[in-house]
């Protein structure tokens, strides 16, 4: 193996049979390259989707009222269902298993908000202090809305990172006043939310203030809750209890999904997990197909290489080569080529993944494509071994026939 | 040097068996220059291949330099081919991707001689056949006569006791053939046994002994005096 002379012999063969070397190497490199891209793309897609869920608590449930789509208790359909503060208090009191219940209110349409001469359009949401938990907001300065703000309906605001940067730049916003529809609000903090662009281009204000200042006192647009350590099944029980209770209070059919849309995020997430499991199996299926095609390709080329070299084998034997040395020469050459080519394919594939990963940063549906290096190396080794085995059989056969027969080969 | 006793060789082509060599008995002494004549299909090439351990025979005995050559292991056969015999073929059989010097040096590679050393020796032998200036040329850049001289240098480099040439002038014009034969005579003068297979009378006439084969049997063995 470390016989320098043998290596020189191999290098001279390789450098003078460039096409043959290229073809063998290419099929290996290409197989590995494609496999890595495939696996990496699958991972990237999965990471991207997981990022989508990162912005909110995994065990969150959202409750959104709408219009009835089923007649109930003598009421016609298309009746608007509304949530109010007392529904919130009722759920908080009577449903067990809720870790954190929050309520929010939206301001319809685009809202002009300005600080001094700088202005922009941002979302304005009213919430209770529990919202920080449900939205997984990370406070980067100051504080979030607290119970006192809520009770006293203070005109305070906590800004998303992008909003803060647009209005204040590097300036510290804490204690400054911004105007929302002409009404001044004191900035008490700013936060980061990983859920995406929209989540950092808005401000939170106390729910009570929102109700008082922008009309509709007592009205709630949406409730959210987290279920703590509850399993998916346990969370579903809580969801069913909420639906029953709200249906009694607000007079709608408990079966009417449109009257009260209750979205269980854990359930939703589970669907994604299942979907990705399916995609992963699919990717592996294609990946194995790619490797198999690579193996067939390498085997084919190795067989042709040996066939092409049969005459050379005859000549070498006439000059005194033993069959062992001939088989060794061919094997060592093919292992050398496939190893180098496999390494090239591996490097290119991983390199392209890294590069594309850095290029598409910020794209929320595809991020961090990566590949398990053990899998990649394993696949490369598999190709090398199978390629060598495919060459070994005809090489042994060619080396063991009578030299005169090998010499006759054209 | 060479002793063949009742050598028989069959080739089977499908269900048809061909008796190529029939009870061949032959003795060739050290230092002889011998030609084996015969028409195509007479078995002369088969005989040469058996002499060169490139092919097996079915019955009889072949003794080369007091060694019985029969049912040899791969290793032994390779060793004898490398140490005892130098081959020269009609179509030269040079490796196309090696230059003249590397082709000549190849038998020494299988003898375990280091690269520098064997290339140096190869140059000496190329000089002997008058091709020192062509050492770096690839076979396809050489004429037929030059290629044959490269293959003669290759056959000589391992200092064999026996040179076997299968139609060495078959692909060459008559003038070049004459030069190549001259080279064989010089080699022979060094004491090396040379056996040349040919179907050309004038080539055979330049050897010391003519053996004629017909239908797998030796019909004539003439010694030129």
Beta content of chain A comes to 15-25%
Output the number of helix runs of chain B: 7
With strands numbered from the N-terminus, the spatial order across the biggest sheet of chain A is 4-5-10-7-9-8
Protein structure class of chain B: alpha/beta
Uncertain segments of chain B are: none
Report the major sheet of chain B.
Answer: 6 strands, mixed
Task: Report what the structure shows.
The complex is a heterodimer of chains A (410) and B (225). Chain A has helices at residues 4-16, 18-54, 85-94, 131-135, 147-152, 161-168, 207-213, 232-250, 265-308, 310-318, 323-359, 373-400, 403-408, and strands at 60-65, 83-84, 100-106, 111-115, 118-127, 138-142, 156-160, 177-180, 183-192, 202-206, 219-220, 222-226, 260-264. Among the domains of chain A are: 4-53 and 270-408, no CATH class; 118-127 and 136-215. By secondary structure, chain A is of the alpha+beta class. In chain B, strand 9 and strand 10 form a beta hairpin. Chain B starts with a strand and ends with a strand. In chain B, 35% of the residues lie in helices and 29% in strands. Chain B is built from seven helices and ten strands. Chain B is globular. At the A-B interface, helix 1, helix 10, helix 11 and helix 13 of A face helix 2 and helix 3 of B.
